[in-house]
Amino acid sequence: MAAGSAIQIPTRLPLLLTHESVLLPGSTMRTSVDSPRNMQLVRSRLLKGTSLRSTIIGVIPNTSDPTSDCDDLPNLHRIGTAALAVQVVGSNWPKPHYTLLVTGLCRFQILQLLKEKPYPIAEVQQLDRLEQFTNGHKSEEELGELSEQFYKYAVQLVEMLDMSVPAVAKLRRLLDNLPREALPDILTSIIRTTNQEKLQILDAVRLEERFKMTIPLLVRQIEGLKLLQKTRKSKQDDDKRVVALRPNRRINHGSITEDEEEEEDHDDVVMLEKKIRTSSMSEQALKVCLKEIKRLKKMPQSMPEYALTRNYLELMVELPWNKSTKDRLEIRAARIVLDNDHYAMEKLKKRVLEYLAVRQLKNNLKGPILCFVGPPGVGKTSVGRSIAKTLGREFHRIALGGVCDQSDIRGHRRTYVGSMPGRIINGLKTVGVNNPVFLLDEVDKLAKSLQGDPAAALLEVLDPEQNHSFTDHYLNVAFDLSQVLFIATANTTATIPPALLDRMEVIQVPGYTQEEKIEIAHRHLIPKQLELHGLTPQQIQIPQVTTLGIITRYTREAGVRALDRKLGAICRAVAVKVAEGQHKEAKPDRAEVGEGEDCKEHVTEDAKPESISDTADLTLPPEMPILIDFHALKDILGPPMYDMEVSERLSQPGVAIGLAWTPLGGEIMFVEASRMDGEGQLTLTGQLGDVMKESAHLAISWLRSNAKRYQLTNASGSFDLLDNTDIHLHFPAGAVTKDGPSAGVTIVTCLASLFSGRLVCSDVAMTGEITLRGLVLPVGGIKDKVLAAHRAGLKRIIIPQRNEKDLEEIAAPVRRELTFVLAARLDQVLNAAFDGGFAATARQEHLNSKL
Ligand code: ADP
């Protein structure tokens, strides 16, 4: 574009409403964006737009009261400044906001508001000529004397400043190089003026008017500066920056409102300093804070660092350096609280009480960190909460699942945009005391990434030798964590980094038996759900058989979380009925007048209380208490989810039930096999790990070597099982990766069933590792596996003989209902798995002897 040719701004501009200051053409301003309207503008226009045009926005000074800024668009000032968004900086602390750097281009006038939401867009008319100044000299529009007079004052003002400062020297050069018409705007934004004065200059559309209005401002500034220089004499250091153009506040009589604002901020900083001095922070922290506040006082507020430093200092003041709750620990009371809050889990409660007792005697916390390991929903978090309750401490849960950045624990250094403290320090700020109970939830789900290893950061937090001087990167000073009581939870110890595991004392929390679940439901879950839904025991009755029905037919879990949810669903359905009933009862007259007593009685007699979803009897309030039985269950929860599955699936040869252990508790696992014509290949499906694949190969090898002994043949009657035959083994639930050696016996049984054509007993489940020679080796997780088999209604369980000792851990009622077969060799497994045994045939031996 040739020099001097006018530039046109777009005729439609998105509008940014600013409270803090007024942007004038030719000047640059940093503004904080946190109102939803402005945030939206930044997000959808500035951050998404790709063209230069999309970075041009209209900046309108918002003259309405900022505190009353609400959803509705306030009355807009008609004149604004079109601006180029030069930089957008995002931050999340203390709440999400952006800092925007904008440079004013020219004035515009709003002709018509086109759109209000999500951010205003207006049709505008450009008011100033916008030119490309390449060698721009004086404006063509000669204002003669007025412009000359203005220029003189401007030069006088600038020359009063320290010319050795590069910025001042540059300003002096600019005075000569910029077109005169641009000067009033630029100088007004540099010198000390109030927002009101800036607004007047913005509104002065005519250049002449602008010159006239700015001259008194320049004169005032010059006078102020003269006075200042007189009083300060030689003291010049503060004048070394352009921002230091500000004269002594008292002289500036005209700018009362802004002065007040400034003073308020100044007061805030003074208050902050006072708070810092009176707070009980450590000496080291105090030193850092005082240094920071000194810096803060010197910093212009528009600097992004100002907000950062201030937030930092506010956090430092808020942190509970020396504030703690008083421990009230009485072991007897603790036992009562734990017993009242939780049914069963005796081993865990016993260990927790021991831990607390030792603490009481020793009066310090140095010792292992408790780590509760068990499937979800078995009450790990809830026990942590009870511990806090017994100690009278604050409780805070820190979820670590999926955390892969060590800054999550240790905080970001303050040099980063959006830096913030880690979860530990944040947690302390939230609870407001330095001795809370912190529950580190799901330590087994910490991940590693390029951003460092959060487990390593946790080590420092948990190590009693180190954590009295834990240094969060954000704070950059040590904070004493030694009073915090840490408790960790995990689903499995397998994925906890060994160094971390080493610092913890693992307490296994196994799943519950059906009987325990029923008790937990009736003692804890149902009363809790009733309260949650505003129901009373007089309104709903859930018999134990129903609870058992929910447990066996609608849930299959080690803990009680799904059971809790199902009970919640029942309470919701009943709440609707009760509310409807109350509504009807509120108008009893009409019901009686309508049909009369007889009819009502009749219907009540007939009405099945369980069919609460039946709409036919809506006209009558439901009979209280509403009884939840199997019909009602079906109405509310739908058809049972786990019915008959086991026996149905075992109705063909080639299927056996194994027992698997997962972090979510034990599970039963069907193993299916089929054979077809082929070339002796083995296909395995169902997301298997390497160990499992090896087990499958072992099983086939053992069966092939024992085919004659057991009369196992392929389809064509040959003892070479893989001759012209392919085998396909499938482990359903293909979405879950399965691995581990414990499926060995199940695979052998399943294949033995396939090749013999016999059915495996439908009530048998098994687990055990195999060797090539047919031995059965012990496996882990027996307790969870047995509970899973019990849940699924199986009656006989084949386990390795060397696992016999693990049976002691199983609750007596469960043990009584099951028969355990202890197997040391595979032939014992097969004998137990098939009705009538699976003996090696006599004929086979006979043949052998003949040969
Ligand atoms: P986890 O942390 O092990 O995943 P939660 O502590 O969140 O499990 O427990 C889930 C729900 O089950 C909670 O409402 C808890 O109160 C309840 N709960 C679990 N076990 C018991 C128990 N033994 N006695 C009473 N309520 C229990």
Describe the structure.
Strand 23 (796-800), helix 27 and strand 24 form a beta-alpha-beta unit. The termini are far apart. The radius of gyration is 40 Å and the shape is elongated. Mean pLDDT is 82; it is low at 134-140, 238-256, 587-611, 613-619 and 842-851. It has 29 helices and 24 strands. It is an alpha/beta fold and 851 residues long. The protein has 6 domains: 12-128, Archaeosine Trna-guanine Transglycosylase, Chain: A, domain 4 (Roll); 145-226, no CATH class; 267-318; 331-508, Rossmann fold (3-Layer(aba) Sandwich), CATH 3.40.50; 512-578 and 622-643, Helicase, Ruva Protein, domain 3; 645-833, Ribosomal Protein S5, domain 2, CATH 3.30.230.10. The structure holds adenosine-5'-diphosphate. Residues 342-345, 376-382, 489, 520, 524, 559-561, 564 line the site of adenosine-5'-diphosphate (ADP).
Domain count: 6
| Helix percentage range | 40-55%
Termini separation comes to: 106 Å
Percent strand: 15-25%
Task: Tell me how many strands there are.
Answer: 24
Strand count, sense and closure of the main sheet? Answer: 5 strands, mixed, barrel
Count of helical segments? 29
Low-confidence stretches: 134-140, 238-256, 587-611, 613-619, 842-851
Globally, the shape reads: elongated
CATH topology of the largest domain: Ribosomal Protein S5, domain 2
| CATH architectural designation of the largest domain | 2-Layer Sandwich
The side-by-side strand order for the widest beta sheet comes to 1-3-4-5-6
Look at the helices and sheets and give the structural class.
alpha/beta
Provide the residue-averaged pLDDT: 82
Q: What is the radius of gyration? A: 40 Å
CATH top level of the largest domain is Alpha Beta
Q: Quaternary arrangement of the chains shown?
A: single chain
Bound small molecules, deduplicated: adenosine-5'-diphosphate
Active site: 742, 785
Family: Belongs to the peptidase S16 family.
Domain Lon proteolytic: 650-836
Organism: Thryothorus ludovicianus
